[in-house]
Amino acid sequence: MTNTKPLVYVGIDPGFACCGIGVVSYDTCSLLFYAHLPEWTPHELYSSLQWIKNEWNIYKAGVEHVHTMSNQGISSTGKFMKATGIIIGTLNGMRIPYYEITPQKWKTISPTLKGIKGETKTQKKNKSLTYVNERFPEKNFCNYKLKKKFKVDIADAICIAIYMYENSL
């Protein structure tokens, strides 16, 4: 008798200072796991993904599609792009299929995630945190002992995984 592990979607919100990871089940979109990797290294990312692979069968991963932004400096943009390249390289090296998903796409999982003219950057970022807290109240996400900024990174990663589930990617 073989012990088959359940399939999962993995969402990854890249960043050079921190990286958020969210895992939802392939068949029910239940939130199974989330993590925050502060000041992560390629080895820590690989170890985290390997742990996830040991627990579940990764069907596909979703990585937030990044681009340059006019309000970012050259150094910050370079670090951000490097971090994203490391994530994509790690996924390829581990033979984990992935999609790059723009924020505009993954935010379609709920009308509450769409931006409203005049909102501050903080208000926009907090929407995913509120959405995840409401969708998974049993996970007690609000009490996860991290700075709010890091919780938002994790919430964005969870939303990416939910988008993949809802769109059968």
Provide a descriptive summary of the structure in words.
The chain has a five-stranded mixed sheet, with helices on both faces. Helix 2 links the parallel strand 4 and strand 5. The mean pLDDT is 86. It is an alpha/beta fold and 169 residues long. It has helices at residues 42-55, 74-93, 103-106, 121-135, 148-166, and strands at residues 7-13, 18-25, 31-38, 57-64, 98-101.
Layout of helices and strands, plus pairs?
Layout: E1 7-13, E2 18-25, E3 31-38, H1 42-55, E4 57-64, H2 74-93, E5 98-101, H3 103-106, H4 121-135, H5 148-166
Parallel strand pairs: 1-4, 4-5
Antiparallel strand pairs: 1-2, 2-3
Helix pairs in contact: 1-2, 4-5
Summarize this entry quickly.
This protein is α/β, with parallel strands linked by helices. Helices cover 43% and strands 21% of the residues. The chain has a 5-stranded mixed sheet with strand order 3-2-1-4-5, with helices on both faces.
